[in-house]
Design a protein that fits this description.
236 residues; alpha/beta; 13% strand; binds farnesyl diphosphate
Length: 236
């Protein structure tokens, strides 16, 4: 969700106004994802690196998150959207943690749509947390390191019970991944849009999905193999 600051700056507004507009886009995007039949929507709302921003901006982002949760929980319930988080949420301010716990509990039963908020998230810290949990399992004799596989390791990631992303969209014109789902996005398609997050709307979302549908996903195979599998003449 990149470009809130630049959206505001280009209008002579304070950065926080860009984040405020960014929250409106969040609302719109959740609604559109539901309408488009997307089962899992993950929003990179606050990275482990974002603590380096001015204290005032970090505080404002936490307040926006707090307000969003207070205000939107009933809409999530109405639309049967389950809320999940990934990241070191234990380091977020207590009031935000409280609201997160409340919303996660209130929406836990829903299965049709899942909204994942990446909060105090970073792929590298995720790997460290997973490695620590894995090592503890080995030390306690619950895990046999000879059985190490991607599947057995991935069970220790924050995303253990979530599917890998098919499509990653980044707004604002930057073409970086910035520590977001680095391992899970190994085979994801990427769409980089030259617009700021507050300008991301239903139309832009639909266009990114069309672009995704135009891509040929080969997962290491050749294009001819895919054609053979699709026509039923391939073995696997
Ligand atoms: C990136 O734009 C945006 C963020 C770091 C914060 C995103 C957070 C929100 C939209 C609000 C809280 C989230 C929810 C889910 C309610 P930037 O500030 O880095 O933009 P810039 O690169 O133009 O400065």
């Amino acid at each position: 969700m990149d470009g809130n600051g630049r959206w505001a700056k280009s209008r002579g507004l304070p950065r926080i106004e860009g984040h405020r507009r960014g929250v409106e886009t969040v609302r719109r995007t959740i609604e559109a994802a539901n309408d488009f039949g997307i089962e899992y929507l993950t929003l990179y709302a606050f990275s482990v690196e974002n603590w380096k921003r001015p204290e005032e901006e970090v505080g404002a982002l936490m307040n926006l998150l707090d307000h969003f949760l207070r205000k939107e929980t009933k809409t999530l319930i109405k639309n049967r959207v389950r809320l999940r988080t990934i990241g070191r949420t234990e380091d977020l301010p207590p009031k935000v943690r409280r609201e997160l716990d409340r919303t996660v509990a209130a929406t836990a039963e829903f299965t049709e749509h899942t909204l994942v908020l990446a909060l105090n998230y970073g792929s590298r810290t995720e790997v460290l947390d997973a490695a620590r949990a894995y090592a503890a399992g080995v030390a306690e004799g619950r895990i046999d390191p000879d059985d190490l596989s991607w599947e057995s390791f991935a069970r220790h990631l924050y995303t253990a019970d979530l599917p890998d992303p098919d499509l990653v969209i980044r707004t604002s014109g930057e073409t970086r991944v910035s520590n977001f789902l680095l391992l899970q996005a190994a085979y994801a398609e990427f769409v980089f849009l030259p617009i700021y997050w507050p300008d991301f709307g239903r139309e832009e979302f639909a266009e990114a999905l069309h672009e995704f549908n135009r891509r040929e996903r080969r997962f290491g195979r050749t294009g001819d193999q895919l054609v053979a599998v699709a026509s039923g003449s391939g073995t696997s």
